[in-house]
Amino acid sequence: MPDSQRHCLHCGMTVAAAPLDIDRLPPRLVCPKCDQDLYAQHDYSCLTRDIAHQRESIPKALEKLDASLLKAWQGYYQSMRLIVGGGLIRGQVLGQLHF
Q1: pTM of the model
Q2: How far apart, in whole angstroms, are the C-alpha atoms of residue 90 and residue 59?
Q3: CA-based torsion, 70, 71, 74, 78: positive or negative
Q4: pLDDT tens-digit readout, 1-48
Q5: CA distances from residue 79 to 13, 32, 62, 73 in whole angstroms, order as listed
Q6: How far apart are CA 2 and CA 39, in angstroms?
Q7: CA distance to 23, 42, 52, 73, per residue, from 63 (Å)
Q8: φ, ψ for residue 80 (rounded to 5)?
Q9: Who's near 34: CB < 8 A, 6+ residues apart?
Q10: What is the pLDDT of residues 69-92, one digit of tens each?
């Protein structure tokens, strides 16, 4: 797999980073120039995703959860807001996040 790039928000250096894997989170990558943790940096934005209101099945909602988590780690988001409703999907998502 080709490496992706991660941009340091502190010093501006671009560093090669291995593609993220949901099973190996949280990742750690240190900038060789300023020693900052590149995955801890954020731009104060919030990623919002609705994973339960387009008639998703539970497996499809969990798939969307994993994709949303990867997008959040790949970006420079400070936080993530998941909209899951109050039904069966919510229970499964909370269980997955607790795990």
Answers
A1: 0.77
A2: 12
A3: negative
A4: 345 888 999 999 999 887 777 677 667 789 999 999 998 899 999 999
A5: 23, 25, 19, 10
A6: 19
A7: 13, 25, 11, 16
A8: -140, 135
A9: 8, 10, 11, 13
A10: 888 888 899 999 999 988 899 999
